[in-house]
Recover the amino acids of this structure.
């Protein structure tokens, strides 16, 4: 018999792509992916920050790595205001050490406002 932890992991895993108790729909082309905000925010701190921004219009951009994650999410979910805010913050906090990572991200996301900056 499985212990409580194994059972919990299995039950939560069964929610993957399930519409059961889903409170988020992510649309990719014609495909709808069902998700659960409590799982996303527990597993991805950047997603929690983005959700807070969606609800309150405020966000704390704690460090370069978090900013990059937030930029990716803002780009994917077409959160234009958040993306622009994060781009300006990344420009402000970038250093010689982080510039190559910023350029790589700009190229991957096809963000000309950053490729021209770097």
């Amino acid at each position: 018999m499985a212990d409580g932890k194994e059972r919990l992991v299995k039950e939560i895993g069964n929610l993957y792509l399930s519409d059961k108790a889903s409170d988020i729909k992510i649309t990719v082309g014609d495909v709808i992916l069902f998700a659960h905000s409590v799982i996303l925010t527990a597993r991805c701190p950047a997603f929690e920050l983005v959700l807070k921004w969606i609800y309150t219009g405020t966000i704390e951009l704690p460090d370069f790595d978090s900013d990059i994650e937030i930029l990716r999410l803002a780009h994917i979910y077409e959160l234009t205001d958040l993306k622009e805010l994060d781009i300006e913050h990344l420009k402000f906090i970038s250093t010689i050490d982080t510039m190559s990572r910023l350029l790589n991200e700009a190229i991957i996301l096809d963000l000309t406002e950053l490729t021209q900056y770097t």
Notes: The beta strands are 24-28, 31-35.
